[in-house]
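Protein modeling request. Please complete all fields; requests missing the sequence field cannot be processed.
Requester role: graduate student
Desired output: 3D structure, token encoding
Chains: 1
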Amino acid sequence: MARAAIGSEIEKLIRLFSGLPGLGLRSARRVVLYLIKREEQLLRPLSRALEMVADSIKICSCCGNIDTTDPCCVCIDPKRDLSVICVVEDVSDLWALERARVMNSHYHVLGGVLSALDGISPHDLNIKRLIERACVPEVQEILLAVNSTVEGHTTAHYITDILGDCNVRVSRLAQGIPVGGELDYLDDGTLAAAINARTIF
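Delivered output (201 residues):
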């Protein structure tokens, strides 16, 4: 019987890292070994940071963003344009737009898209709160910044229909977003072009 090369605690850490996007077992082993070799500079600070985030993370009750405060830092920012709400599928899309610095609006995170195959209905998404926010007098435009997929288009059409009774303009991202593309993987220039060339939906 072969002996175990590493202890169970390290093996567990490797398995946890291998569950992260883009990391398999081999990559996870390299990451864990790198962290262990730099215990004071990386491993311990990372451990403390993870614990702090786990203890303080909150979902914004207004827009659905992930932050350490509720409402989140975007929702309470007085410099934001109150007239536009940018609707995204996931928090990663919100972060991508913020990283590109092309929006100064408020956001709304749906938490996914409509998908009959996956059994995701309007009740599973953060749509009810969006309707409430869209009907506020200050809001003039709802920008649907959903991914250019079949599910994204279906969700955009559904939201456009249900916002028909609200006195708002509904727009979509335009050029720059390829069919099948996802916001989180696009470069800042592409995101900026799509924002600047948005069209009425």
